[in-house]
Write a structure and sequence with these properties.
The structure holds 2 protein chains of 2 kinds.
Chain A lengths: L7 E10 L5 E11 L3 E5 L6 H8 L4 E9 L2 E2 L5 H6 L2 E4 L11 H8 L6 H14 L1 H5 L10 H13 L5 E5 L7 H18 L2 E5 L3 H7 L2 E6 L2 E7 H6 L1 H8 L12
Parallel strand pairs in A: 3-8, 3-9, 6-7, 7-8
Antiparallel strand pairs in A: 1-2, 1-4, 4-5, 9-10
Chain B lengths: L1 H34 L6 H18 L4 H24 L7 H23 L14 E4 L2 E4 H23 L1 H11 L1 H6 L4 H26 L7 H15 L4 H21 L5 H15 L13
Antiparallel strand pairs in B: 1-2
Helix pairs in contact in B: 1-5, 1-8, 1-9, 1-10, 2-3, 2-4, 2-8, 2-9, 3-8, 5-6, 5-8, 6-8, 9-10, 9-11, 10-11
Classes of the chains: A alpha/beta, B mainly alpha.
């Protein structure tokens, strides 16, 4: 497939704030394609989640730009950005608890006029997550944490996105379920060509699942590299993954 | 045997009244569940709907149920006006501002009603007024039975609408997680407009049905306010399903109290239930999940 057929999402020197003048992000630049999984790691308050919110138009972008395939999508409204193929799975459980699994998925296609298409996409989600088909008529609150995470991912798949922004996919999940969620994320990328940009507190597992990694601190990109490179990098181990890494001397930077 | 028979007859009367209470209270519950404001002027919209039906009934000599066909759409737009003129401008103000504005609306509307229709007792007339029929030995007042039937129809339509339509699902989604609904492309402001319209329409039905059963005057809405609040608190704030069950309980309790204790004690029971609920089960009948539709 020629390169031009792969969509590219990029941030160019983006400075963003929630309250005008109080910048959370300082000149963030990053780029991912539909073929990649990228992971943002870093300490609390580094601005990881803010990067995703800036892309979705949920912050004030004070300077810099966000581009999707060359089109400037900075300052667009969330639903306009969704229409262009970027979906967002916010942090924490954001399912509708008193609605059934099917109703939750159906809400994912709310902005689509063609409800027949929505039903077809729901079928595709059921094929991808058979457990959701099994529980399609159950109220969402009755499902486990991992299953609820699948509802959230399934719900944004209804719009057939090119990119999916996922905030802390593994938060609050048991290790076994966490592994399953990362496997699903990888298969979304490999099988459906959805570019993934995720924020992950669980840095090692996040980087293992990713092609690209960005280490954020104080609203800046401190390191970037392939997931494997970052996992090996002693400085990152020492600063962000806890401890000095195996058999490595503890040297100052 | 006779006392049991009387008790059963009172239960029937209570359930018939409770059905009408359910319609009166469901609009208030819906607004709290979705918009998260306490619409304390709901009962003045109920009496306004009652007077609209009264006028249609008088001027066109229409059956009260048929006059709803005119009253309901008019009240839908009045509900929208309440949202646009009172609620939306105070969106970022502290909650007490909205309460005061609603209180102002109560006074303005109550006095306007008095000016237009006078403060005398009135009643909505129908061909079946004062008639009744017997069924297995029990007396069914015809206006009350018809009012109950209409109440059931309206509540049933509301529930079907909330369960099975795109807009209904969007209303529930906003109630359960407003931010997420917004991210998924739901226009929350539009949902609020629709909810206020529906709520006022329900108020109109409730008021018109009450007007078919009892005579009324402008300040009567204050006692209805007590009833609808008791129902909504007992059912759990914002839970439409809970409100329906609570309405039946309070309807029955009022009728029983009026018979066994004394006619004036009916409203007292509604307030007693309100206070007992607030002390012992503030989350309402249906448990802690609350505040969602």
């Amino acid at each position: 497939m020629p390169i031009s057929e792969t969509d590219i999402l990029s941030l160019n020197d983006v400075e963003a704030s929630y309250t005008k003048g109080v910048k959370i992000l300082h000149a963030i630049s990053l780029k991912i394609t539909q073929k990649e999984i990228a992971c943002l790691i870093g300490p609390n308050g580094a601005g990881k989640s803010t990067v995703l919110k800036a892309i979705m138009g949920l912050t004030n972008v004070e300077s810099g730009s966000i581009n999707l395939n060359g089109e400037d999508v900075t300052d667009m409204k969330p639903h306009e950005i969704m229409h262009r193929g970027i979906s967002y799975v916010p942090q924490g459980r954001t399912i509708f608890p008193e609605m059934t699994v099917w109703e939750n998925l159906r809400m994912g296609g709310f902005i689509l006029k063609d409800k027949h298409l929505v039903e077809n996409r729901i079928q595709e989600v059921f094929d991808m997550f058979p457990i959701l088909y099994k529980y399609r008529n159950q109220k969402a609150y009755a499902l486990s944490g991992g299953e609820q995470q699948m509802i959230e991912m399934g719900r944004v798949l209804i719009l057939d996105p090119k990119f999916m922004l996922i905030d802390e996919p593994s938060i609050g999940l048991a290790p076994k379920v966490r592994k399953l969620v990362f496997e699903k994320i990888i298969s979304l990328n490999r099988e459906k060509s959805i570019g993934i940009l995720m924020v992950e507190q669980n840095a090692v597992q996040g980087l293992e699942a990713s092609d690209l990694g960005y280490v954020l601190d104080m609203g800046r990109v401190r390191f970037r590299g392939s997931g494997v490179e970052l996992l090996k990098d002693i400085r990152i181990h020492r600063l962000y993954l806890g401890g000095g890494g195996k058999d490595q001397p503890k040297t100052k930077l | 045997m006779k006392s049991f028979f009387i008790f059963a007859q009172l239960l029937i009367n209570g359930v018939l009244l409770g059905g009408v209470y359910a319609v009166m209270a469901s609009g208030l519950s819906l607004i709290f569940g979705v918009v998260r404001v306490l619409q304390i002027s709901h009962s003045v919209l109920i009496i306004l709907g009652c007077y609209f039906s009264y006028s249609v009934n008088r001027t066109l000599s229409l059956d009260p149920i048929l006059s709803l066909l005119i009253t309901m759409p008019v009240m839908f737009f009045i509900g929208i006006a309440v949202y646009r003129l009172v609620v939306a401008p105070l969106k970022d103000a502290p909650p007490v501002a909205a309460l005061l504005a609603f209180f102002g609306l109560i006074l303005a509307l109550e006095n306007t009603i008095g000016l237009i229709w006078t403060t005398n007792y009135n009643a909505i007339h129908s061909v079946y007024q004062g008639k009744s029929f017997l069924l297995s030995g029990f007396v069914f007042s015809l206006p009350k039975t018809i009012a109950f039937g209409m109440a059931c129809l309206v509540i049933f339509t509301l529930l079907i609408f909330l369960r099975n339509t795109e807009t209904g699902r969007a209303i529930r989604a906003v109630s359960q997680d407003r931010d997420t609904a917004q991210i998924l492309g739901v226009d929350v402001d539009r949902i609020f407009v629709i909810v206020f319209g529906i709520s006022a329409t329900l108020a109109a039905v409730g008021g018109s049905l009450m007007g078919m059963i009892y005579s009324f005057y402008p300040s009567l809405h204050w006692s209805w306010l007590g009833v609808v609040f008791s129902v909504v608190i007992l059912g759990g704030l914002g839970q439409v399903g809970g409100a329906i069950i609570a309405a039946l309980i309070i309807g029955v309790a009022e009728i029983l109290a009026a018979y066994y204790i004394g006619a004036a004690w009916g409203p007292f029971v509604a307030f007693a239930i309100l206070i007992i609920t607030l002390v012992h089960r503030p989350q309402g009948l249906l448990g802690t999940k609350g505040q969602r539709i």
